[in-house]
Design brief:
The chain is 34% helix and 20% strand. The protein is α/β, with parallel strands linked by helices. Strand 2 and strand 3 form a beta hairpin. The longest helix is centred in the first third of the chain and has 19 residues. It is rod-shaped, with a radius of gyration of 29 Å. The termini are far apart.
Length: 130
């Protein structure tokens, strides 16, 4: 058996380069998805509906400063929790200023999750379709 060692041995690096480029693209794409995806701009909604029975609601308003109002009085989150406990058959309806701090919304949602199993209504104005 005779071996011919005069030929150059070539290794094709094209598949390796293709895999490296695919990995690079994958990592670039996944790091761009880690940024916040949704900007919350309340309260405009094109699917807004009129409430049927307002007597079964607890209306809470959040001002642009983050103050929580119930029956035209400023209340705390713990007082809101007490109001919800005292009215177990009513649903929480939130009127939130679109410039209100998001943390105020999160506090109210935490209370709604605890006292109402996450059921609540966010009241919005109707927005016109463009």
């Amino acid at each position: 058996m005779k071996f011919d060692f005069d030929e150059d041995i070539n290794i094709d690096l094209t598949p390796l380069i293709d895999v490296i480029f695919m990995l690079l693209i994958f990592f670039i794409m996944t790091t761009t998805f880690s940024k916040p995806v949704i900007d919350v701009l309340l309260p405009a909604s094109i699917t807004a509906e009129k409430a049927e029975d307002k007597t079964k609601e607890i209306a809470v308003t959040v001002s642009n400063k983050g103050d929580i109002y119930y029956n035209d009085k400023i209340i705390t989150v713990s007082e809101l929790e007490t109001v919800l406990k005292n009215n177990p058959d009513k649903i929480l309806n939130m009127f939130i200023d679109k410039t209100a701090p998001f943390q105020a919304f999160v506090h109210i949602v935490d209370v709604a999750k605890k006292e109402r199993n996450g059921r609540f209504i966010i009241s919005t104005d109707t927005a016109e379709r463009k």
